[in-house]
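Record format v2
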Amino acid sequence: MKKDLDTLRHSASHVLAQAVQELFPKVKLGIGPSIENGFYYDFDKKEGFTPEDLKSIEAKCKELIKKDIKIVKKEVSRAEAKKILKNEPLKLELLEDLKGEITFYEQEKFIDLCAGPHVESTKEIKAFKILSTAGAYWKGDSNNEMLQRIYGTAFYDKKEMRKYLFMLEEAKKRDHKKIGEKLNLFSFHEEGPGFPFFHPNGMVIYNALTDYWKEVHKKHDYKEIKTPIILNKELWLKSGHWDNYKENMYFTKIDKKDYAVKPMNCPGGILVYKDRLHSYRDLPLKLAELGLVHRHELSGVLNGLFRVRNFTQDDAHVYCTEKQLEEEIIKIINLADEIYKTFGLTYELELSTKPEKSIGTQEMWNSAENSLKNALETLKLKYQLNEGDGAFYGPKIDFHIKDSIGRSWQCGTIQVDFSMPEKFDLEYTGEDNKKHRPVMVHRALLGSLERFFGILIEHYAGKFPLWLSPVQVKIMNVNDEVLDYSNKIKEELEKNDIRVEIDDRNESISKKVRDAQNQKINYMITIGEKEVEAKKLAIRTRDGKIEFGVSIDKFVKDLKKEIEEKK
RNA sequence: GCCUCGGUAGCUUAGUUGGUAGAGCACUACAUUGGUAAUGUAGAGGUCGUGGGUUCAACCCCCAUCCGAGGCUCCA
């Protein structure tokens, strides 16, 4: 009988807790659930666990597993439960919130308040490993004390665990921070924590991304705008950011007056809309902006390009009538689909509806939610419904894309907004020659260019498709005799807008190939006497395929096709 | 911001009862002119994250601080 991993891992967390309490009797228990790829247990302990502690804990766990300890369920009264937990203050707190029947699971002297289920015996845990420690707030609230969390994983089968650990190793190899350094794409410096520096190679990719983005948006009838990074206090007061988002904003003074660095693009974009009178004939009006925003994120959350303090959002605001809303949503979803497909990324959709705290009438919400829902249904798309998870100003659709390691990232978002048009008194003149209020849709598809770049690095493991590659072709001369011809080939490729470099170092071909290979360059051209004589090329792909006697014209033609197709 | 761990050359790193640093890659020079993942030799490169303290003496011990990793929380 194959039981599910959640049950096994939950039991593994109990084994961990038993081991910790046997080794550290003073330690109090928090909670210990199973999670996606393993489990954790939170412990109330003043000092953290040292690496040595973890080793002895793991050894203890393995010992307990071998002992074949039966895990027994016990139903008890509330009074009994209190007695059992008299030395476990955190568990008592949990008991307070508990309704209905109270169950414990017992294994030897260890007993834990727990709803279950569990495996019958510790022996069923065939593979067990402690992975890491971390601090974690009690009940996830930063006002509470911090507990020591131990993460681990467990499997029914040793092979399965080996596979999982191998995957973790692979994930580490794809780490965009490491690849970014190796391929000389970007860097971070103490002089500006959380502010990325893009290097020439990184800029090639960044520019290829933005060029593509601009091209595809133009095709979909967006107009591009650019708004200032610094705007005055009054604007941010009006938009509500000054009151609601202050913690994350940077401020400055100009001529003794208060200004803020923009954390979002919308207020600036709205000023562009308001600068002219609009007719219903102008709608839908789609204003796009690759907008550089700054947000002060806590130092502990910064994480390479995934989480930075300044980034460029691929923002756009669609101003339209309520009637046009559904069709506009459909168009945005189609655009998102086109873009994600270009990168070979899959995605899942979530629809979030009216939260408890919200503005706007119920009618508006119903109409907006229906527009989003109808759009999804018209396109026959599967989605997850998150009731009450929308923004206070309107419902939204989120795109969660899957990266190479299976992690899910929220990239695209489509948000309907009733608030801003109201706050900024946006208008258009209708067919009836009366003023009407437009609906505003905020949308970003890549999310942030920086983070999307990071995701792409890991998605491709640094092996970028030709159209994104910083160096598309590396020319390698066998000896100095053929250097002139090699340079001619380089010029020829440059004439055709191919990003090409020549490796004319005094090194062996093997060495040059190895280096180019490590730089993950798409095509390597070796030039020796044979090539000079025949006026042909020897081409090696980064997958190790070699083709001799290729004409330059054919090579250029193939490259151009590959770039054009973005494969 | 909080918890745990870390920071030695551009990169990867060795360095224990405290006696002022060693390697590989990369870089430079010279030799070598070679055919698809590392040719050889030599050279240069370090105020051991930063600032204090203890000590005759600190990469090492103590304090503070900055930065990074993994989490918590947050989020594009």
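Residues 202-225+284-460 of chain A form a domain with the BirA Bifunctional Protein; domain 2 fold (CATH 3.30.930.10).
The radius of gyration of chain A is 29 Å.
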